[in-house]
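Why do we bother with holo predictions? Because pocket geometry can differ from the apo form. Keep that in mind while you read this record for guanosine-5'-diphosphate.
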Amino acid sequence: MKLAMIGFGQAGGKILDKFIEYDKRTNAGIVRSAVAVNTAKADLMGLEHVPESNRVLIGQSRVKGHGVGADNELGAEIAEEDIDEVQGAIDNIPVHEVDAFLVLAGLGGGTGSGGSPVVAKHLKRIYTEPVYGLGVLPGGDEGGIYTLNAARSFQTFVREVDNLLVFDNDAWRKTGESVQGGYDEINEEIVTRFGILFGAGEVDEGGDVAESVVDSSEIINTLAGGGVSTVGYAAETVENESSSGGLLSKFTGGGQKQPEDTANTTNRITSLVRKAALGRLTLPCEIDGAERALLVTAGPPAFLNRKGIERGRKWLEEQTGSMEVRGGDYPVPGSDRVAAVVLLSGVTNVPRIKELQQIAIEAQENIDEIRQESEDNLQNLVEDDDDELEPLF
Ligand code: GDP
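The structure, written out:
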């Protein structure tokens, strides 16, 4: 499906940049328009793929291009004050050509954390297209203020979007790596998963798998109903002769070359579906109780089959208890991989969110306590013991 993407803040902008790069590399055709919004000039200048004319610096009169320093209330205020500047960039998007908006942000910081729910609310008021969020939760080692920001932004963002797709940095943290190098890899993981998911609805129907190709309406229907979503992914390399572009890739004789028997193909798909759903999800959670699900199997057409999807779908129905499990193909002729992507929408049993909220509440209490204490300490310092001195005015 074709998306208008709005990257808010540093993380939002960098992930947006990665999406554009992915789109160019794979010809997925999902990023119809891209707008990056930030209060920090340097972050906008660091982007590589977002066109310069689509980079919007907000809050110049308040923070002079220096960012909001993890103050997400200020981030939200500035986004509201300067919403016309954001709208100015969105005005250049041919909205009739997009299937949905996707607002991306890291929820632990300031600009994206505060601004993304504001812009989502604004978009929903103006356009009829669905507005989705892609929210990134901070790593547990980032500290209390980031957790508190994320917990408050999460509550607001879920309320303002048609569905919030969540990625949890904490579950994907790699030890022993520089933060920057770590994020690069993590961002690649993000775009692979969401790229296949959204790319699935962008395939020209045709050929012998037409009836089982995922349509963008199936993605939209799976996300409809709101709430929180998570995505699972698993892939396996296959020997796809057509990927080398050799003679064997052509039709041979009367029929298409069958590289392996269908039982193999089916078994591979069913085990990939299980790995995707039971492995590391973008937001780890219990899949039992997910309201809706969508299964996408991607790869060269000869390695996809209806039976595999049907079995995978049935298995997902059993595991989630959901009656709304959709499924389909995403044929990628030149690829040498078969992948399963599972979108679980409307998940409610998410211990990580409860933990995040608990830590956020503790952080909030600590912050209040420290503030009170330092006010008292300052008063003790400035005032003389017996109150004999008087200030000038
Ligand atoms: P903002 O610019 O004020 O919106 O804040 P940032 O986007 O810099 O940071 C917000 C949070 O996003 C951080 O606490 C990190 O958890 C996360 N983050 C920052 N950069 C990246 C990135 O490139 N990738 C990912 N996955 N997360 C990031």
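The two ends are 65 Å apart (CA to CA).
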